[in-house]
C-alpha cells in the first residue's frame, strides 16, 4: 500500500527536512509551501515521491484545494499521516503588540492547523480502515508549549493552544483510528532562529511610551540569553527523524520533547523552578 503523507510549512527547516527524509524512505509526500519559488526548489531535488503543493494554511481556499488534490491522489488508500508544521513568530511587548499581527499569527499557528486537520479527518480515517493501522496527526508545537517567555506572548499562546488541541484530539479521534501527537522541540538550527533575531531588532526600533526603555533593555537581554542557548540548538534532521518514528510507531506518545535545551526547560517547569528561567530573561 502506498503511504501518503502531507507536511505543511515545507519550504525550509523542519518541514523541508522531514519532507525530503520521508520521501527518500518510501513515502509519497505532499509538501505544502506558500509560493511557486519554494515549490520549484523542491522539484529541483528530483525526488520522484516528493510533490510540492501550494498551501497557505491561513487561506481556506488553499486548504480546500489541497484536500481535493489528496482526495484524487489517495482516496482509496487514505492519508497515512498529516504533519502540521507551518508556523510563524511575532516578537513584541504585550502592551505594544499589533493586534492584526497577533491575529495573523494565531491564524497560521492554530486556526490553520485546526481547519486543515478537520478537513482531512475523513482521509485519515480511510487509511485506518483500509490498512487496519492507525493514521497519525503530528502537530509541531514547541517547548514554548510548556512555558511562556517574555516578548513572545502570542507565539506561546498559539503553542499552548496546539498542545491543548493535540491532547483533546487524542481523546476524540483515537476511536476513529487516528492517533495525535505533539512534538515539542527547543531551539532549531534553521532560518526561523535568525528571523526571530531580525524581528527582535526591528521591534526594538519602534518601541514607544513610558516603558520603552524597560522593554528595549530586556528584549536585548532576552536575545543575549537566547544566543547562549543557540549552541544547544538541535539540527532539523533530529526533529525529522523523531517525526518519522512517531508516524511509524503503533502507539506513539502524546508529547515528544526534542533537544537538550527543551529537555532542560521541561525539567525546570516540572520542578517548578521557572524563576531560574525568569532570572535569565527579564528584570525590572
Automatic annotation (TrEMBL):
Pfam families reported in the protein's UniProt record: adh_short
GO molecular function: oxidoreductase activity
UniProt xrefs under CDD domains: 17beta-HSD-like_SDR_c (cd05374)
Cytoplasm recorded as keyword: no
Keyword annotations: Oxidoreductase
Recorded superkingdom: Bacteria
Keyword Oxidoreductase found: yes
Family: Belongs to the short-chain dehydrogenases/reductases (SDR) family.
Name this polypeptide is given: Short-chain dehydrogenase
Species of provenance: Spirosoma montaniterrae
Amino acid at each position: 500500500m502506498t503511504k501518503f503523507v502531507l507536511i505543511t510549512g515545507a519550504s525550509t527547516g523542519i518541514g523541508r527536512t522531514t519532507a525530503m527524509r520521508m520521501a527518500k524512505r518510501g513515502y509519497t509526500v505532499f509538501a505544502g509551501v506558500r509560493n511557486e519559488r519554494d515549490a520549484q526548489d523542491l522539484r529541483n531535488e528530483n525526488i520522484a515521491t516528493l510533490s510540492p503543493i501550494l498551501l497557505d494554511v491561513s487561506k481556506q481556499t488553499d486548504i480546500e484545494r489541497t484536500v481535493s488534490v489528496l482526495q484524487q491522489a489517495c482516496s482509496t488508500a487514505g492519508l497515512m499521516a498529516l504533519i502540521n508544521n507551518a508556523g510563524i513568530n511575532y516578537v513584541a511587548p504585550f502592551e505594544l503588540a499589533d493586534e492584526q499581527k497577533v491575529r495573523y499569527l494565531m491564524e497560521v499557528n492554530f486556526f490553520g492547523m485546526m481547519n486543515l486537520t478537520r478537513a482531512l479527518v475523513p482521509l485519515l480515517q480511510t487509511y485506518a480502515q483500509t490498512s487496519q493501522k492507525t493514521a497519525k496527526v503530528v502537530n509541531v508545537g514547541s517547548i514554548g508549549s510548556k512555558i511562556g517567555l517574555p516578548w513572545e506572548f502570542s507565539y506561546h499562546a498559539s503553542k499552548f493552544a496546539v498542545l491543548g488541541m493535540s491532547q483533546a484530539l487524542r481523546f476524540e479521534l483515537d476511536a476513529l483510528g487516528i492517533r495525535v501527537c505533539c512534538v515539542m522541540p527547543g531551539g532549531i538550527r534553521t532560518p526561523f532562529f535568525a528571523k526571530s533575531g531580525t524581528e527582535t531588532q526591528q521591534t526594538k526600533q519602534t518601541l514607544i511610551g513610558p516603558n520603552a526603555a524597560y522593554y528595549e533593555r530586556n528584549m536585548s537581554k532576552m536575545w543575549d540569553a537566547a544566543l547562549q542557548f543557540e549552541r544547544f540548538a538541535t539540527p532539523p534532521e533530529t526533529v525529522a527523524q523523531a517525526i518519522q518514528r512517531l508516524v511509524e510507531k503503533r502507539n506513539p506518545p502524546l508529547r515528544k520533547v526534542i533537544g537538550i535545551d527543551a529537555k532542560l526547560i521541561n525539567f525546570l517547569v516540572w520542578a517548578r523552578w521557572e524563576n531560574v528561567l525568569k532570572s535569565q530573561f527579564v528584570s525590572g
